[in-house]
Amino acid sequence: MNVKPMSVWAYIVGFVLLTSCNSVTPPAPYGVLPSESQIEWQKMEFYMFVHFGPNTFTDVEWGNGKEDPKVFNPTDLDCRQWAATAKAAGMTAIIITAKHHDGFCLWPSAYSTHTVRESSWKGGRGDVLRELSEACKEYGLKFGVYLSPWDQNHPDYGTPAYNQLFANTLTEVLTNYGEVFEQWFDGANGEGPNGKKQLYDWNLFHRTVYTHQPNAVIFSDVGPGCRWIGNEDGYAGETNWSRLDTIGFQPGKSPTLDTLSMGNRYGGAWIPGEADTSIRPGWFYSPSTNDKVKSVAELMNTYYASVGRNANFLLNVPADRRGRIHPNDSIRLMEFRAAKEKTFETNLAKGKMTATSVRGNSKRYAAENILDGQYDTYWATNDGETTGSIELDLGTPQTFNRLLLQEYIPLGQRIAAFNVEYWDNETGTWNLLAEATTIGYKRILCLPTVTTGKIRINITQSLASPIVNTLELYHAPEILLSENGGSIIGGQTGEVVLKPITEPTVIDLGENVQLKGFYYIPERVVAAANISRYNFYVSMDIKNWTPLKSNALFNNIRNNPIRQDVLFDKETNARYIKLEAVEVADGSDTYHIVELGIIK
Question: 542: alpha, beta or left, given left = phi > 0 and alpha = psi -120 to 50?
Fold first, then answer.
């Protein structure tokens, strides 16, 4: 009996089975996908915004374009100090306000007469963009630019000629300072009901950016590269899809703030969120805020609510009047980095990883891949399986309170809901620890501190077969959880009930008072019924009123509703004051006041 042919056949069959097992078809991409630039952008996670310009020296948030350019005169500008600070803080890039709404250019633009060339700084021979781009290159940081399309100085603003002029300005910046990783736009066009209006040619602007910087990620309310997260507190939604529907929208005319915060589950474009906030109450430097720098706890909370919720964290650290990062800000940044590194110092996720389902039973897609530290390896289920569980046996009990998960976003964002369970040895049962929705590029859950030898992640809803490439566990120092100064998001402190106001607000000061100005405290909610434009009057007899401010603007109050201090051109005596709303941030006919007072 000749058995050799059978042995050869058995060998061939075994070889084919083994080969097919190791060459299981990868999961097909799902939905709209990020570009390579967007993937690399998301990996940057945390970088610096620097607001700097005439506003730094005039102590306002939004200039009006009428300021003398000679007011811009930093005494000791050092962009290398900015870059060194950002690098030491663990940041990956710096974005500079190259041109804010006042139209002042931080470089000697050929398309404006309101620039550093007309300033006192360096006798008009300076160029902030040149110094910063070179400093970023020296310190291994990426360089980004903010250019506001609104220009309150240029005479062409409000005419058809302006769009091409702004495109020329963009070209000037994007071709003279090396690689630009992010072009930051907003849709500001805010001169009020009777002011100039410009119909922006966004197609032209975007085309100009991509012509000169094809790998740049363009930021605006609605992208197209990344989107505003809907507030200036730095908080993304607990549900946060990297997809967004943009048809019918444009910068300055965006979906609702809730939509920007959460994205759209089935959105037609990949436009991930960027969460921006300032380390101080305002965006530009003010001496009055030197003692109001955010605490380490606030910064940690913002990190969890941005990077920890599938968004990048853009933290504004304004340069002071010397042209340097203030010591209070830089010290806090170093403290923040130390706290963050302490939190994520030791990954406790080690042990045996198993799953209820593995794609094609292939090691290429096994659950153990999520512990190997490699971005491009992952656990995946079979097509059509949109639920599943992964379990980690830690071997010995570990104490932790942070869980980090990542989806493999080059193949799309899929997971819509999951929960976390831990094994209780005493009862011999799985206990629920947390429930959440989206994961995306990265999700960090702040959990109750628990000690256990096993943890299980249950994917309860996914739009396609789930793909997870990272799981990490950490034990954060408890001090970070209880430190004073946590952010209050979405409402006032305490029980404050605000009455809608329709008429001008008049206050009797009780006696004749010499006034330097007044202050207005709005409701601390983005896009609330806060006054955005106003008239302000004084009177000695409540009959005859003298206007001191007409059609004046509370700068950026819609997105950053903080206390507004207004100083008069000269001191004045008054017994009565009157604040009249001209325009309300949310477009309503009524407005809110938390507090209105005088500055003596």
Answer: left
Residue 507: count of CB within 10 angstroms of its CB: 15
So what's the pLDDT on residue 498?
64
Please tell me the distance from the alpha carbon of residue 513 to that of residue 600, in angstroms, as a whole number: 8
Q: Check whether 319 has a pLDDT greater than 90.
A: yes
Phi, psi of 293 (to 5 degrees): -70, 140
Radius of gyration of the chain (CA): 28
Asked whether 455 and 488 are in contact (CB, 8 A), the reply is: no
The CA-atom distances, in angstroms, between 447 and each of 399, 403, 427, 434 are 11, 7, 21, 7
Residue 273 CA to residue 313 CA, distance in Å, equals 9
Reply yes or no on whether the pLDDT at 492 is more than 50: no
Whole-angstrom CA distances from 112 to 156, 165, 178, 251, 444 are: 10, 10, 22, 24, 46
- For β-strands 182-184 and 217-220, DSSP reports them as parallel
State the CB neighbour count (10 A cutoff) for residue 557. 24
Interior angle at CA 324, CA 321 and CA 326, nearest 5: 85
The number of angstroms, rounded, from the C-alpha of 573 to the middle of its chain's C-alpha atoms is 44
Which residue type sits at 462? S
Q: Output the pLDDT for position 194.
A: 67
Contact 64, 192 (CB under 8 A): no
pTM of structure = 0.84
Query: Mean pLDDT throughout 443-470?
Result: 97
How far apart, in whole angstroms, are the C-alpha atoms of residue 187 and residue 117?
27
What integer best gives the mean pLDDT of the chain?
A: 91
Q: How far from 397 is each of 345, 351, 372, CA to CA, in Å?
A: 18, 11, 21
CA distance 283 to 286: 9
Residue 452 · residue 422 · CB < 8 Å: yes
